[in-house]
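Much of our argument rests on the idea that a fold can be written as discrete symbols. This step matters because it turns folding into a mapping between discrete strings. The record that follows shows the chain in one-letter code together with its fold in token form.
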Amino acid sequence: MQINHKVGVLGTALIIGGYLIYAKITSTIPPSPPSHEEKKEGSHEERMLIILDEQKIKNLDLQILKVADAHHRRRITFPGQVSLNENEVIHVSTTIPGIIKKVYKNLGEEVKVGDALALIESREMAEAKSAYISVYKELILKKDLLEREERLWKMKVKPETEFLKTQNMYEITKIDLEQKKQKLLALNIKESEIEKLPFQSAPLNSYAIEAPINGKVLERHASLGEIINSDRQLFVVANLDKVWINISIPAQDLSTIKKGQHVDIYASNGAPFLSSTLMYVSPVISEESRTGRAIVELDNTRGAWHPGDFVSAQVISNEISPFISIPAAAVQKIKGEAYVFVKTGATQFEAKKITIHGTENGQFFEVKEGVSPGDEIVMTNTFLLKAELGKSEAEHSD
């Protein structure tokens, strides 16, 4: 007995370079009864796959987030902004009027502690240095006189009153010299430089404005030949190795935010997030914005965080949650449903439908179904994958 089978291929498409693999095969052979899993998932649901070559993946700049058990946490999302570390910002000013004769550093230049930023010529500085030198030399002479008077007194050539008088004058001069030294220190002259003053040949009216910390010149308000007054700010130098994230906490949420809580910081450019802890939570609410301030300190030795940029801060308010939290940027709407793109191979991605818990507001969604720990989901440029998916479906329909 011969049995004839007719198999008709209604549609089979494979796009080289990798797009949607979409296949549906029908047969005249009666289909077998659906399994329990097929009844649950739907026997007509096809996998939505995208295959991309390595170069295209690189061009799309897809960042992958591996879902971990740590994502089972209750999180609250707040807006934030990158700012300078206020402990590492120095406003460099002059304490004495003068004329700017040289400017050694420009905007954006790296500086080390002690590097000269500008050279100032000042009559007041010359007078202060000259006064110190004068008293220093006077002290040397009075020291010699005191030693001579002491010898004569011990030899009973001079009375003790003469010796005590000379000793008193010497002590007064010592006090005067210390006062002149303190004035120079107040003018930001180093003690090592003060000690060399009586022996130097350089002009007394010149002094250098030096960098007080390692960092970068962010502002410069000094021009060659400019006359400046005391307390004039000339430079702003900041160390950018660490930056602060200022987080705005609405008044109604401030009671749930505590110092030491874990925070995930997400940059606006889609770069991988960094985790840290809250180092400060303000007890004061701003009258204008009705928000409190929380601060996170981040390492910035690679220069990835730029003061002024906006970020999203996901504060972990509860370490245990039944739902997985993922960035909103990882979610795309396809035919009115929420999907994520899961990396299922070296160059293969699958669009998987997810069920979101609660409302789809904020920068992060809580997912009830569709994502599991261990899944690798695309968290940046997912709209490009959605476009590739739509392109593939259009080509298939043709």
